[in-house]
Amino acid sequence: MLLGRVSKAVMSKGQFLMYVFSILIMDWISLSTVLKDLLKAILSRSKDFGESWLMMRNQMLKIYSEALSSNCRDIVQMMQSIHDEVLSEEIEIDRGQTDDFTPRPLARLQNYLAELKPGHNLDDKTLSLNEVIRLCKTEMYHYARVSGLHVLECIMDTALSAVKREQLEEASNVLQLFPQLQPLVAAMGWDLLAGKIAARRKLMQLLWTSKSQVIRLEESSLYGNKSDEISCVEHLCDTLCYQLDLASFVACVNSGQSWNSKFSLVRSGKEQAAFSDEDVYSDHFVENFVLERLSVQTPIRVLFDVVPGIKFREAIELITMQPIASTLEAWKRKQDVELMHMRYALESVVLALGAMERSISDEIETHQNVPLVHLKDMRSHLDAISNLPRKIFMVNVMISLLHMDNISANSMRCGSRGSDSKLSTASSLGSNCSTRSEEGNKMVISFTSLLLDILRQNIPSSVVELENTLDGGVSTASRQALEWQMSISARFIEEWEWRLSILQHLLPLSERQWRWKEALTVLRAAPSKLLNLCMQKAKFDIGEEAVHRFSLSAEDKATLELAEWVDSACKKASVDDVVSRVQDLDFSSLRSQLGPLSTILLCIDVAATSAKSAGMSQQLLNQVLQ
Fold first, then answer.
1. 3-state helix, strand, coil in the chain (%, to 5)
2. Residue spans of alpha helices (H) in 180-306
3. φ, ψ dihedrals at 122, nearest 5°
4. What is the DSSP letter of 417?
5. DSSP 206
6. CA 550 – CA 619 distance, rounded (Å)
7. Contact, 393 vs 459, CB < 8 A?
8. DSSP letters along 321-352, please?
9. Which one of 44, 177, 287, 624 is CB 3.0 to 4.6 Å from 247, fit for a cystine?
10. Rounded to whole angstroms, how far apart are CA atoms 199 and 193?
11. 374 burial via Cβ count (<10 Å: 0-12, 13-18, 19+)
12. DSSP 3-state assignment of 297?
């Protein structure tokens, strides 16, 4: 009865407490018991933040204010001790009721936030969210003080426990007290959700992508200037989001779906809240496999291993999404982008050479513009490479490809930009070509000329230019190696340009247009074979130029002279003219250059192969025998 009267007095008139104190002032044990029962009765009247909780707080404030007005330190200390004892008993009771223990202040916060969900009348709320968060922080301070823990430790334990139970909304609610802990909980909770792709994605959406990026901008005072580098934990969260995006892309491609950047955790920010839509195209096995590889390998390595036919625009988008937190990482990402351009440049030239083999063939009709489209793609990729040694390396690799036969690749499974819309455009433009055989030679010349022009533009024009381009960190041995490779490439390009000029003046033996493989035979031919072709086509001026360019032997030079004499003699009208033509040929000079035996064998060979009449052959043999 006394407790009831005291409780009513507290709610109506606080001075009644002094009356109780005056009655029991000499009995401290009784006073302690009464105060303890009183505080228990008051604290038990409110379980959630609201009107009843405000009444409870006001009653507690009245009790403490009356105790302070008594100017009795012992009474105030007794009340504090009793209050702490009551809180401690509540904590022990709560811990014993469930394994998943949640501190009572945080449980009140969870209940309050649950009522804020759509469908509840927010006008009935006595306290705003900011007020509830402030009051919850105050209660958590007393909770931590009584339990001997740190406030942040309590918050972290509760949030991680909720993450482990996959109650991610609860973890997000708890962290509203200290939003700066969100990236730390997201990073630590990642390992608690091993193998659970959907839960990991939702975790990052709630605790990092959706909240922490906004906090970092709005509460920039916590981080110093906005231009400061982000913390290692924040960078880790960015990296984990990026890995989820990469895994999602691979899963979409593997299932035949197209990946949409609106599903990206890195780029979408807090606007991305649709969890179920993405799961429609999700393959958790594939995504977990990609995440396992990303834990030990670089993104560019994993991406091109698991999706070898990835298109260029998709690859460049994914690689440039990779988060960077330092100048070194920015430099590494630049290197990755250059490596991608190198990869697609090689793919483009392979596709171009393969398309060229198919474009001028009797069996397969392919649009002539396709090889040129691939070459233009190759040029754009090479232009994007800023590292000169890499450019020289690429040029040498492409030169090596020109010496290989049967180069082909399936353009449908390649990621070159030329395999997309531009190829379809090229196909539509080339579908009306009805005079393919007439344009064959022109196509070979145009393709080869463009290819050589691209190669020449991507190597230094001189050693001085190479020296000026290289930085001081390149060793002497490396410089010498680059100069050697550059000289080889320059000689190759110059020689093929000369051979291309020959190709423009020659036609195949059957007097039709060049096919690509036949043109390659001329472009790759050894000097002696090229000389034989010139003699067969009666292009003796070109043959003489070949003798000087390649510094051919005296025997080759004599062969050219003899073949030219035979061709001229065949045009004479009578045998007498042939005889006089034989006398014009200086056989003594041939003997002095080649020797008697070589001259005899050469004349026999020409008499058997080039001479077009028995009389001419007889004259040659008679002249040799003299």
1. 75, 0, 25
2. 182-192, 197-204, 212-218, 232-254, 265-268, 276-279, 284-294, 299-306
3. -75, -15
4. G
5. I
6. 32
7. no
8. TS---SHHHHHHHHHHHHHHHHHHHHHHHHHH
9. 287
10. 7
11. buried
12. coil
Using only C-alpha atoms, what is the Rg of the chain? Answer: 44
| 161-122-62 Cα angle (round to 5) | 80
What the block records as the tokens of 411 is 């353009």
**CB–CB of 47/37 below 8 Å?**
no
Q: Which two tokens stand for residue 67?
A: 């105790």
Token digits of residue 438: 């007439």
Structure tokens at 11: 């709610």
Q: Are 300 and 279 spatial neighbours (Cβ–Cβ below 8 Å)?
A: no
| Whether 427 contacts 500, CB under 8 Å | no
- Could you count the other beta carbons within 10 Å of the beta carbon of residue 239? 18
Query: Which pair of tokens denotes residue 207?
Result: 């605790």
For 463, half-sphere exposure in the C-beta direction (CA atoms, 13 angstrom radius) is 9
pLDDT band at 361 (very low <50, low <70, confident <90, very high): low
pLDDT digits (tens, 9 = 90+) for 456-490: 999 998 888 888 888 777 888 888 899 999 999 99
Cβ–Cβ contacts within 10 Å for residue 569, how many? 24
Q: Which residue has the tokens 């139970």?
A: 165
- How deeply is 555 buried, as exposed, middle or buried, from its count of CB atoms within 10 A (0-12, 13-18, 19+)? middle
Please state, in angstroms and rounded to a whole number, the distance separating the CA atoms of residues 532 and 606.
12
Q: Which amino acid is at 503?
A: L
- Whole-number Å distance between alpha carbons of 345 and 380: 8
CB atoms within 10 A of CB 386: 11
Contact between 39 and 86 under an 8 Å Cβ cutoff? The reply is yes
pLDDT at 422 over 70: no
Q: Tell me the C-alpha distance between 197 and 283, whole Å.
A: 9
The DSSP H or E segment spanning 41 is helix 28-43
- Is 116 in a helix, a strand, or coil? coil
Give the DSSP H or E segment for 195.
none
Q: Three-state DSSP class for 578?
A: helix
This model's pTM is above 0.90: no
Segment among 102-111, 413-422, 458-467, 470-479 with least mean pLDDT: 413-422
